[in-house]
Amino acid sequence: MRFEGIHHVTCITGDAAGNVDFYTRVLGLRLVKKTVNQDDPTVYHLFYADEDGSPGADITFFEYPGARRGRAGAGMVHVIALRVGSEEALDFWEARLRAEGRSTRRSDGRLRFDDPEGLGLELVVVAGGDAPLMARNPEVPAEVALQGFDGVRAFSEAPEASRRLLEETLGFMPGGEGGWEARGAVRGGRYAYDPPPASGAGIPGAGTVHHVAWSSNMEDHDAWLARLRGAGAHASGIIDRFWFRSIYFREPSGVLFEIATLGPGFAIDEDIDHLGEALILPPAFEHLRAQIEPVLTPLPDPRASWMA
Ligand code: ZN
Predict the structure, then answer these.
(1) For residue 153, how far is its CA from the centre of ligand 1 (angstroms)?
(2) Which residues of 149-169 are buried (b: 16+ CB within 10 A; e: fewer)?
(3) 44 alpha carbon to ligand 1 midpoint, in Å?
(4) Is residue 77 part of a domain?
(5) What residues have CB less than 8 Å from 170, skipping those under 6 apart?
(6) 200 C-alpha to center of ligand 1: Å?
(7) Domain count, the chain
(8) Best label site of 66, 198, 214, 249, fewest CB within 10 Å?
(9) What does the alpha-carbon distance between residue 178 and residue 157 come to, in Å, rounded to a whole number?
(10) How far from 140 is each of 24, 104, 134, 229, 266, CA to CA, in Å?
(11) What is the distance between the alpha carbons of residues 279 and 289, in angstroms, rounded to a whole number?
(12) What separation in Å is there between the alpha carbon of 195 and the centre of ligand 1?
């Protein structure tokens, strides 16, 4: 039983409109689901991914309007790494991000930058290997497009405390830059730690990561819960998120993990050609639409100008 890499990474934004602009127009991802936080349906949950809304390419945001900036500290993810196919792709993104006023830091095979709210992002050249998960965008040629997650890096004061759960319970394999890889039959995703900054404890808020989800095959999900509980982890039980099913728990460093099923997926309740255009509420929340819709910030359809 192995994870098929990262399923999604969920973060916090205080500015849904700016968030949509950055992740769709600038980074070229597709808004694949515009819905609400199922634990707080008065705020958006926005999902950006490849053209098909695939697990493995799915960065999501809870919007808390006007939320203060947070800061990553111990027990929090501080960088999300996304794959690109070549150094030429890094040239493209370095120029594009600088033209957007973002500062970038280039090193061999990597380009590090922050999103407009300070969320740490990195593009990593990974040639060959897993299938690229790409979205279409008129300003981003396919050969330089983002290709899905490579991994995440978290801050931990005691990374060794996590080793046993990661390796023995979750099946992570040690490898590469002091980290691990969770690899299944089709995809892999990396996880690694860095020492926390001296600036002090982390502060959740805009521009921080809320949790990272790992991809489970549909038939393995119950067994993952049993395995977690057998290892003494305090797991949430199985929660039906409609587009996938989820189990939540904190790994020993404090990072909130989720195990999410690969299906049924975002096309279950929307035409694949129109993903993300309308506010979609899971059936259990549909009766709240009249209260929810007026309190949400109206958002543009990022594709309205070029898909007509
Ligand atoms: Zn999640």
Answers:
(1) 17
(2) bbbbbbbbeebeebeebbeeb
(3) 14
(4) yes
(5) 3, 182, 214
(6) 26
(7) 1
(8) 198
(9) 14
(10) 11, 18, 10, 45, 24
(11) 9
(12) 25
DSSP symbol at 92? H
Q: 10 CA distance to ligand 1 centroid (A)?
A: 6
CA 7 to ligand 1 centroid distance, Å: 8
Residue 154 is predicted with a pLDDT of 98
Cβ atoms 49, 58 nearer than 8 A: yes
Query: Cα–Cα distance between 106 and 103 in angstroms, integer?
Result: 10
| Residue at token pair 């259990």 | 284
| CA 8 / ligand 1 centre spacing (Å) | 6
Domain that holds residue 49: 6-307
Give 129 Cα–ligand 1 centroid separation in angstroms. 25
Q: How many angstroms does the Cα of residue 11 sit away from the middle of ligand 1?
A: 9
CATH number for 81 = 3.10.180.10
Do the Cβ atoms of 257 and 215 come closer than 8 Å? no
Distance from Cα 215 to the centre of ligand 1, integer Å = 11
Per-residue pLDDT for the chain (308 aa), expressed as one digit of tens each? 999 999 999 999 999 999 999 999 999 999 999 999 999 999 999 999 999 999 999 999 999 999 999 999 999 999 999 999 999 999 999 999 999 999 999 999 999 999 999 999 999 999 878 999 999 999 999 999 999 999 999 999 999 999 999 999 999 999 877 799 999 999 999 999 999 999 878 999 999 999 999 999 999 999 999 999 999 999 999 999 999 999 999 999 999 999 999 999 998 999 999 999 999 998 999 999 999 999 998 898 999 888 75
Structure tokens at 202: 């982390």
Ligand 1 (single-atom ion) residues, CB below 5 Å: 10, 213, 258
* pTM: predicted TM-score of the whole model, two decimal places: 0.97
In a domain, 107, yes or no: yes
Distance 107 CA to ligand 1 centre (A): 31
- Residue where the block lists tokens 């978290």: 154
Q: How far is the CA of 244 from the centre of ligand 1 (A)?
A: 9
Q: Is residue 167 included in any domain, yes or no? A: yes
Distance 213 CA to ligand 1 centre (A): 6
